[in-house]
């Protein structure tokens, strides 16, 4: 859920304005007991970075309750809750939910009274009290999600109707051709009305409605102030392209990772974004007549080719360097910028990613929000925080690296800036990136 929407809803319930809903806190220079950054990093001019928490376990997601407490999804450990002192540092930490199976998704309703989290196969809900920071009444709300290559399940609440949740499942292979069928429940985001959930929970594959599909691994998505969701998609690896019997390796800089405008879940259904047949161009030099952001197929022929994809599949609004592995995205408090965490590559030489990027947004005349850059731009975002030398970073498995593995991204309601997580298996960390 977009942070601003959460604050507005919480403030309305409390009968106060947004500014009064959560007290502002200072940005600390350092915090007692928190070790230095585990990995070397570079901070863009005009920004500062400090480490607010360490010693965590594979940080995946950070959210805020209506009291300003920070909830953290720690893969293979569970969900922790953290409070802050007047100095802006963490002054208490407790394990809210112990669950080794919980590995990514984390969301609250606007009133902070219902908490959702996900494992690879199941989405759960709890009643949550933001004052006492206690949970009760655990329920299974959705079950039967496919297991496979992509094990994380992003989950979000629709602020316009908090009974609705969005729940994502990625493909079960690099090229999962069966996922073209929505009934597989893969490479898809579905919508579930929790107020009508069966006592044993929905079945993911057969129940719910399709929000969007053809999304290889839409591992993060967030709403703008209008309730339109924007998702970041991890695309394929090790691809070749075959034209007229000629097979070429294109994997170094293609296909692009994507920023998709997923639309408003109050109205959008069955939107198709191309996977597993259509992919997006990053480096157009590998193609003829295509631009960055255009769709292409791996083996064009007379009946199904690039033009077919560009006529049928919804194009990304922006694209990112191939193999960056975007994990999560968030807006600042005025939705003037989106921030995206890049987990980093495992199959590209030199390596890429391992950074946080900023995407300038604007509000158009019709009131909608949109990136400033055109869809074919290769410069629509800029680095604000990165490994000192991303090209030398290694990625052994999902979380092992000699660099941080950036994951969570959440704008602080107390005004300190952008909270960013790392799930490096050596140490889970949370940083604050603050504009000066």
Describe the structure.
The protein has 436 residues and is mostly beta strands. 5% of the residues lie in helices and 39% in strands. It contains three helices and 32 strands. Strands 1, 25, 26, 27, 28 and 29 form a six-stranded antiparallel beta sheet that branches. The protein has a five-stranded mixed beta sheet with strand order 7-8-9-10-14, with no helix packed on it. The protein has a five-stranded mixed beta sheet with strand order 11-12-13-15-21, with no helix packed on it. 50% of the residues are buried.
What are the salient characteristics of this protein?
436 residues; mainly beta; five-stranded mixed sheet; 6-blade_b-propeller_TolB-like; Quinoprot_gluc/sorb_DH_b-prop; signal
């Amino acid at each position: 859920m977009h942070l601003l929407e959460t604050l507005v809803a919480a403030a309305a319930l409390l009968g106060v304005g947004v500014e009064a809903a959560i007290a502002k806190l200072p940005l600390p220079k350092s915090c007692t007991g928190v070790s230095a950054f585990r990995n070397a990093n570079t901070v863009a001019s005009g920004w500062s970075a400090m480490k607010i928490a360490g010693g965590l376990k594979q940080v995946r997601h950070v959210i805020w309750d209506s009291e300003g407490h920070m909830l953290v999804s720690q893969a293979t450990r569970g969900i922790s809750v953290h409070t802050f002192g007047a100095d802006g540092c963490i002054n208490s930490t407790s394990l809210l939910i112990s669950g080794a199976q919980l590995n990514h998704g984390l969301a609250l309703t606007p009133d902070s009274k219902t908490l959702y989290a996900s494992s690879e196969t199941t989405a759960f809900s709890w009643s949550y009290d933001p004052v006492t920071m206690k949970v009760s009444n655990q329920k299974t709300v959705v079950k039967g999600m496919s297991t496979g290559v992509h094990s994380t399940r992003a989950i979000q609440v629709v602020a316009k109707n908090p009974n609705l949740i969005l729940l994502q499942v990625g493909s079960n292979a690099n090229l999962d051709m069966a996922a073209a069928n929505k009934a597989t429940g893969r490479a898809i985001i579905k919508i579930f009305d929790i107020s009508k959930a069966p006592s044993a929970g929905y079945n993911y594959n057969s129940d719910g409605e399709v929000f969007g599909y053809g999304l290889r691994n839409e591992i993060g998505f967030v709403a703008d102030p209008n309730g339109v969701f924007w998702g970041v998609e991890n695309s394929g690896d090790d691809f070749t392209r075959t034209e007229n019997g000629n097979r070429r390796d294109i994997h170094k800089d293609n296909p692009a990772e994507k920023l998709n405008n997923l639309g408003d879940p109050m109205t959008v259904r069955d939107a198709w974004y191309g996977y597993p047949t259509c992919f997006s161009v990053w480096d157009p030099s590998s193609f003829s007549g295509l631009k960055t952001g255009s769709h292409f197929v791996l083996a064009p022929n007379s009946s199904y080719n690039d033009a077919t994809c560009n006529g049928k599949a919804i194009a990304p609004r922006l694209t990112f360097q191939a193999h960056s592995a975007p994990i999560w995205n968030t807006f600042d408090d005025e939705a003037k910028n989106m921030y995206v965490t890049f987990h980093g590559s495992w199959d590209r030489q030199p390596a890429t990613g391992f950074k946080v990027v900023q995407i300038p947004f604007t509000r158009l005349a019709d009131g909608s929000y949109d990136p400033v850059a055109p869809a074919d731009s290769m410069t629509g975002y800029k680095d604000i925080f990165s490994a000192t030398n991303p090209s030398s970073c290694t990625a052994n498995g999902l979380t092992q690296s000699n660099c941080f593995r950036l994951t969570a991204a959440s704008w602080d309601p107390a005004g300190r800036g952008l909270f960013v997580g790392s799930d490096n298996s050596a140490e889970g960390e949370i940083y604050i990136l603050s504009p000066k």
